[in-house]
Structures are given as structure tokens and as C-alpha cells.
Design goal:
Strand content: under 5%
Radius of gyration: 18 Å
Structural class: mainly alpha
Number of strands: 2
Strand order of the largest sheet: 1-2
Helix content: over 70%
Largest sheet: 2 strands, antiparallel
């Protein structure tokens, strides 16, 4: 992992650690929120927000509130995704999932509260009002009923019947790409990027998100549980359609490379100084967790 990425993660962790620390009567809610939000992970989405802010002419620090907001939305989605009514997972990042640690009711409420806190983080920044408003609308669009949540709905439907290739592609775009698109677009907005750069950031994230999900499908088939921090083979056990079950492992690996190259090509057309983003795309291509 490159030093700039590590530096970003350090900034992000420190910033996130400042949330939900007040002494309140409902302290267990804050504990559940922090347990989930500060559980580590690659922090891909907030890192992308910071780096797109930088390549768009801003400083990474300008995008920290937006980065935190995207990570809060991502965290709430994981909490709910792990619930018995959804994927029914007991482990996340190598430790008990939120509902195992705090109970199902508190897990649901922690997820609900993180969603609200995300929009509070966006709207409370010192950035110009038009940027705050557009960022908030961007997050709502990609996270809500026509974005990530819609992807979860289609993913659940896929547990009841096999999905076609176009249907699976739509699940990937909504469930995974959407929130990555939010991170990249919001980072570009924070940096004062042009409309052309906003469009390019969105296209990059769309392809990168598909690649990310394809690699998730591959790792669920051939990954190592110790590195992933969650059970291997859960998709196959539940009968879910994945890129691997639909196309086979070899074709899935080819598709992973194709989407990564699409993402990288978009950068070269619009942004300068994209070495970090190009490295990140390649790193995700070969990740093991």
C-alpha cells in the first residue's frame, strides 16, 4: 500500500473517531455506531473522495466531511446487510457483526442513525452552500431508493431465482458502484471540479465499482477467510447468482481486468496527476480482502 493512501486512511480514521463521543443517556447507540464505523476496512470510498478532491484542485482535508458521510452510509448498509433478514452473517472484518454484539434492535437503530448522521456531516461543512446542496443530493441519489437500496432489493430478489447477466449487471451498478460514484463525485465537487471532471469521476467510479464487485465474487469463491474476515462460499451456499456462477472463474477474471481498464482510461482523458488513482485501480484488481 502506497504512503499517500496510508496517510489518507490515517486522516480519515482520526476524523471518524471524532463522531458520536458525547456523554448521552443513549450511550449504547453511540457505542454501536462507533463499533461499526471504526471497525477498520480499506476505507476505499473515503480515500477516493479525498483523492478526487485533490486532483480537482482542492486539498484532501476539504473533502473529509463528504468522505465521512459516504463511509457512514456504507457502514449502515453493512450493518443492515448482515442482519438475519438479509445475509444473516455473524462475522464482519474478523469480528462479530453489530447485531451479534449489540442485538438486532440496536443494530437497526445504529444503521438508521448513521444514515441521518451522514447527511448532517454533508450539510454542516464550511464549503459553499451550492456545493453542500449538490453533494447532499448526490449522496441521496446514489444511496437511496434509486441507488444502493435498490441494488439491495434486486440482490434479495436474486436469492429466490437465478439472475440473467443484464440483471446481475444492474445489481452490481446499484449495490456497489453507486456509493463509489457518490464518493468520487462528491470529492470532485469539494475540490471545485469542472462539470467535465464531475462526469469523468462518475464514469470512473461506475467501472471501478463493477470491478470491485466482480473481485468480491471471485474472492467469495477462491479467497481466504482469514484475510477477508468473513466466511468464504456464502454466496454459493445461498444459491445467489454471481459473476463466477454465471460466467465461470476464468471469464470473471477477464471481466475484472476489462472494467479496471475502462476506469483507468477515463482518468487519462480528464485529470492530471492521476498516478495515485491508477495505482489504486490496479491494487483493487489484485486485492485479497
Amino acid at each position: 500500500m502506497q504512503n499517500w493512501y496510508k496517510d489518507y486512511v490515517t486522516k480519515i480514521e482520526a476524523y471518524l473517531d471524532g463522531f458520536f463521543c458525547s456523554n448521552v443517556t443513549w450511550t449504547e447507540l453511540y457505542e454501536a455506531m462507533r463499533y461499526s464505523l471504526l471497525s477498520g476496512g480499506k476505507r476505499i470510498r473515503p480515500v477516493l473522495a479525498l483523492e478526487f478532491c485533490r486532483v480537482s484542485g482542492g486539498t484532501p482535508e476539504q473533502a473529509l466531511p463528504f468522505a465521512a458521510a459516504v463511509e457512514m452510509i456504507h457502514t449502515y448498509s453493512l450493518i443492515h446487510d448482515d442482519l438475519p433478514a438479509m445475509d444473516n452473517d455473524d462475522l464482519r472484518r474478523g469480528r462479530p457483526t453489530t447485531h451479534i454484539k449489540f442485538g438486532e434492535g440496536m443494530a437497526i437503530l445504529a444503521g438508521d442513525a448513521l444514515q441521518s448522521a451522514a447527511f448532517r456531516a454533508v450539510l454542516a461543512t464550511d464549503l459553499p452552500e451550492d456545493i453542500r446542496c449538490r453533494a447532499g443530493l448526490t449522496l441521496a441519489r446514489f444511496a437511496g431508493e434509486d441507488g444502493m437500496v435498490a441494488g439491495q432489493v434486486l440482490d434479495l430478489a436474486g436469492e429466490k431465482r437465478p439472475l440473467t447477466a443484464p440483471e446481475l449487471g444492474q445489481v452490481h451498478l446499484l449495490k456497489t458502484s453507486a456509493l463509489i460514484q457518490a464518493a468520487c463525485v462528491m470529492g470532485t465537487l469539494a475540490g471545485g471540479g469542472t462539470e467535465t471532471q464531475v462526469i469523468a469521476a462518475d464514469k470512473f467510479a461506475r467501472a471501478l465499482g463493477v470491478a470491485f464487485q466482480i473481485q468480491d465474487d471471485i474472492l467469495d469463491c477462491i479467497g481466504e477467510q482469514e484475510k477477508l474476515g468473513k466466511p468464504i462460499g456464502s454466496d454459493a451456499a445461498s444459491g445467489k447468482t454471481t459473476v463466477v456462477t454465471l460466467h465461470g472463474l476464468e471469464r470473471a477474471q477477464e471481466m475484472l481486468k476489462e472494467q479496471t481498464e475502462i476506469a483507468k482510461a477515463v482518468l487519462a482523458e480528464t485529470f492530471d496527476d492521476t498516478a495515485g488513482l491508477l495505482w489504486l485501480a490496479d491494487w483493487l484488481l489484485g486485492r485479497e480482502y
